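Q: I'm teaching a short session on how sequence maps to structure, and I want students to see two examples side by side rather than one. Could you give me a first protein with its sequence written out and its structure tokens following it? Keep the formatting plain so it prints cleanly on a handout.
A: Of course. Example one:
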Amino acid sequence: TACDNVLLLAGHQALVLGGSRGLGELAAKALAAGGAEVVITFRSGALDAARVVDEIVAAGGACRAVRAEADDAPGLVAALQGWRPSHLYYFPTPRIGRQAGGAFDQELYAEFHRVYVTGFSAIVAAVAGDGRGGSEVGHGRFSSGMMGSGSVAGP
């Protein structure tokens, strides 16, 4: 059945970390189709990011891409140039996610922790708060909750 309110996310701003490929790309396209203004990030997939932006814009959505590291909250805040998301979706894929088989060692664990624990927490605090690490998580700006590889969605 068709959705009665197709632009449910009109007026919302969605930040999709790792939005140039995979689940992040799909999330970005779905959010844009719902009317959200979308910013995607990429680390090394500039061509993929440009393709996603072009596809979203060609379909009538609003999207741009910024290069950002998943563990560099101050760099991300600077790249956003004052733009503040109401929704945050976290799908970065560090080397640990691209490794096929093999042993899981302490170096890979350290990278996992840096991206999915420390990086995620710092980015939520930076974009939900004052951009310097202060956070309003759980106080109206963002409601915290995990989905898939990580998502914090706002009102």
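Q: Perfect. Now a second example for contrast.
A: Example two:
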Amino acid sequence: KLAYKAAYHFLHPLLRLYFVYASPAKDSARVLLVHKNEIMLVQNIGARRWSFPGGALQTKEFPEAGALRELREELDITDATIEYKLGMYDGKHHGEPVLVHIYVAQAKSFYHKKQWEIDRAEWFTLGQLPSNLSPATARRIGDYKNGLRDVLDFW
């Protein structure tokens, strides 16, 4: 098992480079997951910054369904409830336009179990967030703290 994990940690950044630079641009859904006064943040393997769980939408998948699917796939969270859409943000992937849908969801507990594509997953209080947030994640947390909903902006 240790050899598998070491090989994965070596190969995953290479696969990530492929998906970031060679895969087609796709819209995505991310989740600002809340439980009590804490939010869930993740670090994908090979990533240095914290961000929201989420990822690319599948063909013909509704963004809200994709957000819940990503919670299941990345964190084994099956009982979260989407409360509202924080916003829809214009982004770029390989210079191609994409939409990033962000949902605010409520978790029923602090339970999570990170899956293969996640290096770290932790709950943070809103007052003690990590210093190495991705800039877009920091902006979206600001939108959330300011009580915004249905934002249309740049990622």
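Q: What should students look for in example two?
A: Point them to this: The beta strands are 28-35, 38-44, 54-56, 81-93, 96-106, 118-125, 151-154. Also worth mentioning: The longest helix spans residues 2-21.
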